[in-house]
Amino acid sequence: MKILDLPPSEAARLIPLLQDLQDLHALHVEHQPARYPAAPTEAELERWLQGWLQQETVTALVAESPKGALLGYVIFEIEHRPPLPVRFEESRVMVHHIATVSAFRRMGVGLALLHAVKQRAEAAGIKVIATTYAPFNSASKALFQSIGLEPVTIFAEWRA
Fold first, then answer.
1. How do residues 15-27 score in pLDDT, each as one tens digit?
2. Domain total for the chain?
């Protein structure tokens, strides 16, 4: 498997993964319907991904099989947080999204993508990697914990 940069101009390569993305999104809708709109269309998802990848601080990596098939992707961003009287200044890599084609889950694709993110962070001198995941998403929790990410903050919401 190869891990490659996905330039914004090639965002359409993620289109074959949209069904897997919709399946993952459905899990979020099932558990938190007040937070997530149900059934976004393929066109909406495509526009969202293309626009997102156009941002200068956002990077997408893809995992490719030896024959060029797309196995999964990760989207992350380098964030620079200024110092506050109550928090130190830091730069961090924020992992926003990771997905693996359903047929290739539990085969190390997500782990390989996260190791590539970690290598990018280290090469840039960044010592913090962060992410968020829903409490019901045990697969994400296990994946992120496998590379050493541990919860440090609880994020809570109230919705009317």
1. 777 667 777 777 7
2. 1
